[in-house]
Fold this sequence. Notes:
Helix content is 54%, strand content 18%. It is an alpha+beta fold. Among the domains are: 68-139, no CATH class; 142-200, Nucleotide Exchange Factor Grpe, Chain A, domain 2. Helix 3 runs antiparallel to helix 4 (124-138). The radius of gyration is 54 Å and the shape is elongated.
Amino acid sequence: MADKKDKNPKKGEGTTPEPDLGATEQDDGVGEVNELFEAEGPDVETSLSDTDLAFLEQSAEDLAAERLADLQRLQAEYVNYRNRVERDREASKQAAVADMAKSLLPILDDLDRAEAHGDLEGGPMALIAQKFRTTVEKLGVTRIGVKDEPFDHNLHEAIVQIPTPGVESMTVADVVEVGYQLGSRLLRPAKVAVAVPQED
């Protein structure tokens, strides 16, 4: 009977207890989670301070000011472009009218000669000449060169100088050929005889 007891010892006596593998693996898993938690740290709610808010507000104001400046610059560039186009259009129009008016000057000269010889008096050509001159004036063409007016080298072309007693400055003594201008544009200078002071 004693031998049987020795051969079958009671549970827990005389033997080494087997390790509980499930418990060990569970402990190891918990340890890894704890280590990961400690490495990352707890969740912390982020909040903006007054300094951060002021910076954001300042950045928004700077951005708005920059965009406003860009818009103002674009508007100014558009206004300048529109004005430049308008000036170019007006200059082109004036150039076209000037070219046409120059082509009409010989007709005006013929009418002046005919009128000087009396060919336009009392006839139908007088009315036609008047209508033609009125039409040219509506284009903005004006006559230059009048007797006894001061000589202006910008408007007059002196073809002869006549020393004249009592004359203190150069004066138009006679108009040989009438000149014309369109606004401030000179189409043709007036050809004149100029009275100049007489030398003693």
